[in-house]
Amino acid sequence: MRSIGGDSFLVPLGARVAAMPGLVVLNGTGRCMWELLAQERSVDELAAAVAEHFDVDYSLAHADAQSFLDEMAQLGLLQP
Questions:
Q1: Beta strand pairing call for 7-10 and 2-4
Q2: Burial of 61 (0-12, 13-18, 19+ CB in 10 A)
Q3: Domains located in the chain, CATH noted
Q4: How far is CA 51 from the centre of its chain?
Q5: What secondary structure, in 3-state letters, does the chain show?
Q6: Which tens digits make up the pLDDT trace of 26-77?
Q7: Predicted local confidence at residue 4, as pLDDT
Q8: For residue 55, what pLDDT is reported?
Q9: Neighbour-count burial for 27-38, b at 16+ CB within 10 Å, e otherwise
């Protein structure tokens, strides 16, 4: 992840450049989740941390976390 002018981006490197031409822009929630994923976490653990950090309902945080994980997996940015 790179931060430029207050914005956060996932920048493909090496072989990923050809597979993913472009950048992924993260909002504040996405940045928080990406940083939390530095350690292996379940979707439930990720949702609980997001709900606490942003003071939002757990069910909303869980839906957002699942959506984020699905999108990152679809882009090939997560290891199984």
A1: antiparallel
A2: buried
A3: 2-74 (1.10.10)
A4: 15
A5: CEEECCEEEECCCCCHHHHCCCCEEECHHHHHHHHHCCCCCCHHHHHHHHHHHHCCCHHHHHHHHHHHHHHHHHCCCCCC
A6: 889 999 999 999 999 999 999 999 999 999 999 999 999 999 999 888 888 8
A7: 72
A8: 96
A9: eebbbbbbeebe
